[in-house]
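User: Here's a structure from my thesis project, written as structure tokens. My advisor, Dr. K., wants to see whether a designed sequence matches the one we expressed. Can you design one independently, without my sequence as a hint?
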């Protein structure tokens, strides 16, 4: 059984990819696990003000994913926006570990958490 995502528009597939409907609801977009890992790493860099990481390009599809994810305004986790040209944070919500289940194995940022058995 696949755990429910906190976003009412997102559907997680068995391979952990996520499907989000487009803004016009006529087409859907599939985001693969490796993209999601890049998106969450980029979001973490924004929140941590990791300027070294942020000086590179944003992961492809990040802005589209962030926009589609943000349609659910009640979702407890929202992805951050960052203005690369001015190296400034545009917005983000409070930190949350809600995205931890997106990974098959824990990323380094969550290695301090004990696994439940």
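Assistant: Designed independently from the structure alone:
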């Amino acid at each position: 059984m696949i755990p429910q995502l906190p976003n009412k528009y997102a559907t997680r597939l068995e391979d952990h990819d996520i499907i989000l409907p487009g803004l016009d609801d006529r087409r859907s977009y599939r985001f693969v696990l490796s993209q999601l890992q890049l998106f969450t790493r980029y979001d973490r860099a924004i929140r941590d003000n990791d300027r070294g990481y942020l000086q590179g390009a944003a992961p492809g599809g990040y802005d589209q994913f962030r926009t589609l994810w943000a349609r659910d305004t009640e979702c407890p986790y929202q992805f951050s926006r960052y203005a690369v040209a001015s190296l400034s944070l545009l917005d983000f919500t409070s930190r949350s570990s809600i995205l931890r289940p997106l990974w098959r194995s824990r990323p380094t940022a969550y290695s301090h958490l004990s696994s439940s058995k």
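When you compare it with your expressed construct, this may help: Residues 55 and 87 are 8 Å apart (CA to CA).
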